[in-house]
Amino acid sequence: VIHLYAFTEAVAALPACTGVAGERVEARTLDDVVAVVGALAAPVAETPSAVLAHGLVVESLAEQSPSVLPARFAEPFADDDSLRSALAPRLAELRRRLVRVRGCVELAVRAMDGRDAPSSGPAGSGRSYMRALASTHAERAAAAESIHRPLHALAAESRVVPPAQGRTVLQASYLVRRGDIGAFADRVEQLAGRHPDLAVVCTGPWAPYSFVEEES
Amino acid sequence: MTVAELPSAGEDVTLLDLVDRVLNKGVVLTGDITLSVADVDLVYVSLRVLLASAGTLDRLAEAS
Asked: Number of residue pairs across A and B with CB atoms under 8 Å?
């Protein structure tokens, strides 16, 4: 079976690291899109080591090639023919996105509130609890916006994940040109300084996992 | 303040971000992805354990 790692425009050299089953990584060319794959004897389950191996192939490739679109860890294709037929209707879109992410990396930013959300203690009325909750929500939304807006201005594109339950105030990904990584990191640090109540964490550079599709 | 309980700007977050990307983002060609939520949770948990013992992603990369 064929395990898919990523797409790229051209590969000068394939990553030296091995894939999810310890296999050598190979290239399959479809027009001007290169699929980076591994030929496996059998499908591989999403174990921690397989997930890491997949991620490491993608990241190694991203270090070597200016333009990489990571594929999600998914079920493998039966053979090269089924990969090609699944790929055919997507080639134009993939080509557009490869151009879009060229020379860029993904930086992830997460801001978390160090304070507990208001709790409904026995002494508090329902109304005051709701009011406290609403004011926390508004404060967090304002903080998220004040971090996101200046970072978005430094990025080619951005994607914000709607905050889930809990303390997450902002969870976002930014597509940043390689030359701008330092400026971006400086800006994150500066913004973190303005929000002493929040833990602001920036990770990356990653391959542009969050930017494989047009913004919806 | 319970800031100490938050993920530090370190290895935990980096690895969680990697796993989140590999399992939840990226191009999907096969319509049929069978990763169940439970499995994903399991991977998260065991990766955290793995991380605690094995160190950063770079060290994991060197070891593999």
From this structure: 119
Q: Which residues of B touch A73 (CB under 8 A)?
A: 22-23, 26, 35
Q: Which residues numbered 47-76 in A keep a CB inside 8 Å of some CB on B? A: 47-49, 51-56, 58, 69-75
What are the pLDDT tens digits along chain A (216 aa)? 999 999 999 877 788 889 999 999 999 998 889 999 999 999 988 887 888 899 999 999 998 899 999 999 888 999 999 999 999 989 999 999 999 999 999 999 989 887 766 665 656 688 888 888 888 889 999 999 999 999 999 999 999 988 766 788 999 999 999 999 999 999 999 999 999 889 888 888 999 999 998 887
Torsion of CA B49, B52, B57, B63, to 10 degrees: -90
CB-nearest to A70 from B27, B39, B40 is: B27
Is the pTM of the predicted complex or chain greater than 0.90? no
Q: Do B27 and A94 touch (CB under 8 A)?
A: yes
| Interface ipTM | 0.78
User: Left (φ > 0), alpha (ψ -120 to 50) or beta: where does A166 sit?
Assistant: left
Provide the token pair at B27: 């191009």
